[in-house]
From TrEMBL:
PANTHER family: SLL0198 PROTEIN-RELATED, SLL1222 PROTEIN. Residues 12-156 form the Putative restriction endonuclease domain. CDD domains: DUF820-like (cd06260). It comes from Thiocapsa marina 5811. This is Putative restriction endonuclease domain-containing protein.
Length: 188
């Protein structure tokens, strides 16, 4: 029996396909974009946009659909990721080689395992300080923070099911209030 050849970042960069990522040495197609996913992604992008401005409360580089090279065989494309400007003062370019300070994944039907297990373990192993998982279908958000090398839940909500506040402060963005109604596609 032949050993399976793991694909590398070089294989990924040579791939003619768009919307692919490198997971466990395999080039994997990303799920088709859906309106629920796009609405949550753009809503959250709007809410954190103030953190990207020089005169804002933040000091972040926040990017959607960004590929991050964690190792020769691991280069996922995150729905949203952010880097603190104090740690990364110059505007990042290309495939990111620098670990993010925050990653947010928005689940897609049939691909939940990738976000809930693979990415969770990969980011925890590499020491990414904050990881959020959002389910548009469930209107749920779970925010994890790395403590002593392990992720711990620091915020969770199932919007519309529990008596959730519309405006919340979630680590690592405690400086701003986010409007969950807007993030989950409600009226502004």
């Amino acid at each position: 029996m032949e050993a399976k050849k793991l694909r590398t970042i070089d294989d990924l960069l040579r791939s003619p396909e768009e919307r692919v990522e490198l997971i466990n040495g395999e080039i994997v197609k990303r799920p088709m974009a859906r309106s629920d996913h796009a609405l949550v992604q753009s809503g959250l992008s709007d809410e954190v946009a103030v953190l990207k401005r020089k005169n804002g409360p933040g000091g972040w580089w926040i990017m959607p659909e960004i590929s991050v090279n964690y190792s020769e065989t691991q280069c996922p494309s995150h729905d949203l990721a952010g880097w603190r400007r104090e740690r990364v003062p110059r505007r990042p370019t290309g495939v990111m080689e620098i670990l993010p300070d925050w990653v947010c994944e928005i689940t897609s039907p049939g691909h939940e395992r990738k976000h809930l297990f693979h990415h969770f373990m990969l980011l925890q192993r590499h020491g990414v300080p904050d990881y959020w998982i959002i389910s548009p279908e469930d209107k749920a958000l779970i925010a994890y923070r790395l403590v002593d090398g392990k992720y711990h839940v620091v915020f969770s909500v199932e919007y519309g099911v529990e008596a959730a506040a519309d405006r919340v402060r979630i680590p690592p963005f405690e400086e701003i209030e986010m409007d969950l109604r807007y993030v989950f596609g409600g009226e502004d």
